[in-house]
Amino acid sequence: MTSAESMPADSAISVILPSVLQPLAGGQSILTAPAEAAVTVEWLLDAVTGDYPALSRRLRDETGAVRRYVNIYVNGNEIRRLQGLVTAVAPGQEVLIIQSVAGG
Amino acid sequence: MGRMATAESYVLAIGTKKGLWLATSPDRRDWSLSGPHFLMSEVPSIGIDTRDGRTRILVGVRSEHWGPTVFHSDDLGETWSEPENGAITFPDGTDAALERIWQIHPDADSRPGVVWAGCEPISVWKSTDGGEHFELNRGLWDHPHRSEWGAGYGGAAAHSIVVDPTGEKVHVAMSTGGVYRSLDGGTSWEPRNRGISAYFMPDPNPEFGQCVHKIAADAAVDGRLYAQNHHGVYRSDDDAESWESIAEGLPADFGFVMLTHPRRAGTAWVIPLKADGERIPPDGKLAVHRTDDAGASWKRLDAGLPEAEYNAVLRDAASVDGAEPAGVYFGTRGGSVYASADEGEHFTEVASHLPDVLCVRAAVVSAALLPAQL
User: Fold this and answer.
1) CA neighbours within 13 Å on the CB side: how many for B365?
2) Does any CB of chain A come closer than 8 Å to the CB of residue B65?
3) I need a surface site. Which of A7, B7, B41, B215 has the fewest CB within 10 A?
């Protein structure tokens, strides 16, 4: 579920991780899920973090909610401004995960 | 800087707002500091488990971005492990998410492997595998009072867990909610706050709802507990059936800390703050106060502490070790950490200018366990 090597670019969706989370994904900076059609962000996160439960817990809590200071961008828009976890992502698109500005 | 000469050494784990530091000492006077571990994550809870022939440091870590989790180290911080699926996660159906781990408390020697945790949202957890996986205590989670428990300024916390080393009694204190007692190992719970004031409520003597800041058990007198309340210092001699004030003789009855001696009856320590509305040491002069007669009188202890200090000491930012004489440790919100090798008579500075100290825990360990670079 996480290797894009054998997948045509337009039939996969890439999730780009911030460097601080990459150790929890075996050192990978990009996780990729196959997708022949549009999927939701929720489906995508389930797919790419399935092998990395510690990474999954960094992004979402036990209720499935995206943590408050985790921002997920689809086409440059943060999903809270779109449809949240049911925001659609099309094959070939990239999803960007960035930590929010927080802390003191 | 290796300190391998003596048979025993001391480890002091310091959890702060921005990471964990570990200090080691051969004599509890000269300290070597390493860290930070978990930089930029707060560490509000630490448990040092010396049972089972190993020294395991458990830490409750919380990143503002990535949430809370429990790490443990069996090599004094050389490496850290985290169960992949998380040591503490709310089960399906609770519709709750872990916010913060306020307390990690290894159980008695008679129950090796058992570790308790107190968390936010207010909940108590129990592990039987040394803190790698915890199970939610359903008796407290499903308690009919739970919807009425509130949050203090720092969050809704189950912050004190006191277990009977030989029996099934468990006392929990929460802010806010007060003291709850179980006589069946945690299956069922009843509030036990008679005598503890909740002056901030319309009825200042409710059955529950008190803001008890910390409780601790007398190690040598069965049924005796001490409590530092949100104004008020109390003792119970009947397993929390009733509480009486022992604040007379203290410069203030506000504060967060309550420590008891690891073996001796009647000895406890508090670190008073002036008042709810003025959370600084009285007159800006930091001092620990110790009783050796179960609260009948108090002795001010400030040798080695600074002339002026305006930072508070939080509820878990104080600890004792198990040595003889007992060591006393505490840290301030200004990032200073102090240690006493003689039960508080004299303090030395372990560290200064760290981030806000949230938790300290100390233990006696074999010097052979210390990593060479410490």
Assistant:
1) 28
2) yes
3) B7
